[in-house]
Amino acid sequence: MDRYKVSERTACSLVGLSRSAYRYMPLPRDDEEPLRAEVVRMASTYGRYGYRFIAGMMRNAGWGQATTSKVARIWREEGLKIPQKQPPRGRLWFNDGSCMRLRATAPNHVWSYDFVFIRDAYGGKIRMLTMIDEFSRKCLTIHCARRIGSIQVIEQLANAMVLHGIPEYIRSDNGPEFIAKELRSWLSGIGVKTAYIEPGSPWENGFCESFNGTFRDNLLDGEIFYSLKEAQIIVGEWVKHYNHVRPHSALGYRPPSTPNPSTQTIAESTHFAAMIYYRKTLFGHGPKLTAVQKLCAFSTTKLKPFNIKSTLKPST
Q: How far is it, in rounded angstroms, from Cα 290 to Cα 157?
């Protein structure tokens, strides 16, 4: 209008715009600023999460207006980084061309575990045993130690089973700790079946491999550990965050953790039953126990794990 010296009425009629639309001034919403501040805060706190994860976490925390489209708009306006889209992935296949035969259909149907290796600030190696429930996507435990053998694997399995129940199957690779005779014998004794993947085919343990990738991306790649104890504490806090706060895309952007009604039943076992069981397994005598009692060979919910060989002696 200033350039061609025409009136507002003439200019609006030429471009087909109403005068009220030309004069409209958008009014900011009252709830926009708190929402924007929360999006920026969560993006700064969880730097490796995209806007979909942030939107899911905000809705879980009570921000009902935090729709995915609205958070995406604020994300772009604030100049936050939007992760690149990942290419679509096919289903998991075996070497013989058949699709994955054992797929979890309920909690405690299939567990899987694997090892993650890192080095501390001084070059020392730290091994981490990760264990998940493939159906609920819940992280059952992450055990950090300098060395982890088959006995330590049994300890962590027993602790997890006491808290979460006994699975039907456990999926793993063919590492020496997972195919050890004492481990397979112990699992067979409590009625748990093993599901070993084909050698050199880590994609067959895809759920645990995906979890390990998330574990590295969200925590390990951004931390420097100066001691084993520091790693244990930080990893333990991350497991709580993963289970209770972090949304999972496969679960409708809800956290994986749900109440487990079987915990109280399993927690009724005692150290006394554990000692009887190991008298029988180590020295060949003792009464027959149930699978729940066998789990307490290493731990209960109230008492710490104990050293079997140092506390049990054969009766004369």
A: 17
Residue 151: CB partners within 8 Å, gap ≥ 6?
Answer: 182
Kindly list the distances between the CA atom of residue 114 and the CA atoms of 22, 163, 210, 217, 257, in Å, as whole numbers in the listed order.
63, 19, 11, 17, 20
Question: And the tokens for 282?
Answer: 């180590």
Answer yes or no: do 208 and 273 share one domain: no
Using DSSP's 3-state secondary structure scheme, residue 314 falls into: coil
**What is d(CA 34, CA 38) in angstroms, rounded to the nearest whole number?**
6
CB 215 within 8 A of CB 130: yes
Residues 105-133 pLDDT 10s:
899 999 999 999 999 999 999 999 999 99
Domain-embedded: residue 257:
no
Residue 101 gets which letter from DSSP?
S
| Identity of the residue numbered 20 | S
- Of 59, 77, 95, the one marking the end of a domain is 77
Angle of helix 206-218 relative to helix 228-244, nearest 10 degrees, comes to 110
Q: What is the 3-state secondary structure (H, E, C) of 196-210?
A: ECCCCCHHHHHHHHH
Domain boundaries, position 125: 110-251
Tens of pLDDT, residue by residue over 82-96, are 555 555 545 444 444
Yes or no: say if 42 and 58 are a contact pair by the CB < 8 Å rule.
yes
Tell me the per-residue pLDDT of 191-216, one tens digit each, with 9 for 90 and over: 999 888 877 777 778 889 999 999 99
CA dist 231 and 223 (Å) reads 9
DSSP code of residue 6? -
Shared-domain flag, residues 125 and 188? yes
The tokens describing 302, both together, are: 């109230």
SS3 category, 38: helix
In this structure, are residues 118 and 128 in contact, taking their beta carbons and an 8 Å threshold?
yes
Do 288 and 243 fall within a single domain?
Answer: no
Report the distance separating Cα 162 and Cα 263, nearest Å.
Answer: 7
Contact 132, 111 (CB under 8 A): yes
CA 119, distance to chain mean position in Å, is: 21
